[in-house]
Design goal:
73 residues, mainly alpha, two-stranded antiparallel ribbon, 1 helix
């Protein structure tokens, strides 16, 4: 490798790294606004003491005093 090729390879590597970082930031922002933020806002709006009668619809819920609850809640 000659001296004139070395800076070009290093420059391309730096540009690739910067491009990859920008792409990762865009994916993270898309995930945050598309998935994380709607879930957080839905959880903030849900009432905490909801009771739907047994039998429970989901396998993670148990029946406690006639209401379906998540164990530990």
């Amino acid at each position: 490798m000659t001296a004139t090729q070395h800076p070009d390879v290093l420059r391309n590597l730096v540009l690739f790294t910067i491009g990859l970082a920008i792409l990762a930031a865009l994916v993270a922002l898309a995930w945050y606004f598309g998935v994380e933020l709607p879930v957080r806002s839905a959880l903030n709006q849900a009432p905490l003491n909801t009771c739907h009668p047994c039998p429970c619809d989901h396998w993670i819920e148990i029946c406690v005093k006639g209401c379906c609850r998540v164990p530990g809640a």
